[in-house]
Amino acid sequence: MKIIGHENTKEQIKIASLAADKRNKAMPHMLFSGAAGCGKTSMAKYVATQRHVNVVSVVPKNLKDYNSVAKTLERLNHDNYSPTGDRTGRIRPSILFLDEVHQLPLYGQELLGLAMENFMFEAKSPGQVHWTPYFTMIGATTDDGKLSKPFRDRFKLRFIFEPYAEEEIIGIITAKANVAKIAMTYDAVKAIAERSRGVPRLAVGFLGRARDMAIARGEKFIGQNTVEMVFEQLKIDEQGFTSVEMKILKTLYDAEGPLGLDNLSIVVNEAPKTILTSIEPFLIQKGLMHRSGKGRVLSKRGEDYLKNSGYLGEAKAKMTIDVGYERK
Fold first, then answer.
1. What is the mean pLDDT, run by run of 10 residues, along the chain of 328 residues?
2. Which of 301, 302, 315, 290 has the alpha carbon at shortest distance from 249?
3. Which of 9, 82, 242, 295 is deepest in the core (most CB within 10 A)?
4. Is 68 in the same domain as 199?
5. Which residues contact 230 (CB under 8 A, 6 or more apart)?
6. For residue 323, is it within any domain?
7. 47 and 141 both lie in a single domain
8. Are residues 90 and 32 in the same domain?
9. Burial class of residue 158 (count of CB atoms within 10 Å of its CB; 0-12, 13-18, 19+)
10. Residues spanned by the domain of 222
């Protein structure tokens, strides 16, 4: 399995892997945090492939009681251990992968935290414990701040997954197209990369839409015109902004002052949580809007973008009139 980008992360993981092999132990537990679609799950699979070990994937919110945690730990690789948990040969520690690990209930964090630290957890009989095989926990999250501090401290290796550079996205699109035997021009690849925000998941999704468009039009390859047609249908502009994002910016432009989240939600007809977690972050990252104590405000850069990109149309002169003015 090949992973494009994240070279420093891969190098650190390689060192930890070699050290674990020499000590016949598990790699340190790892926390992958960052924006959705930036390769956290792919990196977990990459680690498992490089280590030649199995992956036990669990939905975090399902680990809410003793039995669910115990059953999960029983799924780990138990080869080459004695009945008392002593190593009797070369071990292959499983990877326990929890996507969206911040959804793990607090009780689950407490139980797993003990297993992560000592590779054992309390038994129901007083004075007794259950041993677990050595394992590596990999938690992926878009909000590691929701984890309790004791649990978060169990992760000795922490990596932040940021959006990819455009050249890396071009490499990912090209690789995916080659695997799927999709012929496309470099201009088409670049047009997709420019709108993908540095997120591989978006890039791959756009590639699939472009492929479908080309097939529907009876084209033998994907050209830039085909890609532009796709983005026109999706209402995504040249910088990757969606129609909803532009609606938010225009709403802030028309507002006479800061706008609260609830009011903004009503105007653009989007759920407050969607705006807060999925829409605003990119606009703030690009410097087009700000969150203030009183609400959301459009930045100077955001105003300039609306004007220069033609989203505001031609401004019409309008003035106040006297109360007694007779309109024609």
1. 88 96 96 91 94 95 92 95 95 96 94 93 86 96 92 96 93 94 96 94 95 95 96 92 93 90 90 88 91 92 91 64 77
2. 302
3. 9
4. no
5. 206, 209, 210, 213
6. no
7. yes
8. yes
9. middle
10. 166-234
